[in-house]
Amino acid sequence: MRPSQNTRKLNPGAFVALMIGLSGLGLPVTGIVNHVYGFSPPSSARHAWMSAHNGLGVLFVTFLVWHVVLNRRALWNHVRSTAARIPAMSRESMLATAVIAVTLLLFVGHAFHAGQTLR
């Protein structure tokens, strides 16, 4: 190693971005494997994949919040400049949003209702 590498300080922005990227890459992989194991009886392998997915999720959210804190000024400036250019919602987009929300409410509500009767 060169001497300059030993004295270089940790770059928090780069560290946070790498943590978000690496944990974000692992989430779909562990999620898919966890989904496949979800159909099998409880086992140590299933528990390990579920734990890995949960751990990566906690890391991802933690470092995402840290990223927002580190970049709050730039994000706030972006939100303010973008908000001035966004037109008001059209009737069509409001109706589409309402239809999707009601459909999701019915389907998700049905799942909770079905879960209540299975107990």
Describe this structure in words.
The chain is mainly α and 119 residues long. The protein is built from five helices and no strands. Helix 2 packs antiparallel against helix 3 (44-70). The chain starts with a helix and ends with a helix. The mean pLDDT is 87.
Number of helices: 5
Would you identify the regions where 5 or more consecutive residues have pLDDT less than 50? none
Distance between termini? 62 Å
Beta-strand content bin:
under 5%
Mean pLDDT: 87
Structural class: mainly alpha
Profile the largest sheet: none
What's the total count of β strands?
Answer: 0
Please provide the ordered H/E string of secondary-structure elements: HHHHH
Radius of gyration over C-alpha positions, nearest whole angstrom: 22 Å
Indicate the overall shape: flat
Helical amount: over 70%
Key attributes of the depicted protein:
flat, 82% helix, mainly alpha
Q: How are the elements arranged and paired?
A:
Elements: H1 3-7, H2 12-37, H3 44-70, H4 72-83, H5 91-118
Helix pairs in contact: 2-3
Can you summarize this structure?
By secondary structure, the chain is mainly alpha-helical. 82% of the residues lie in helices and 0% in strands.
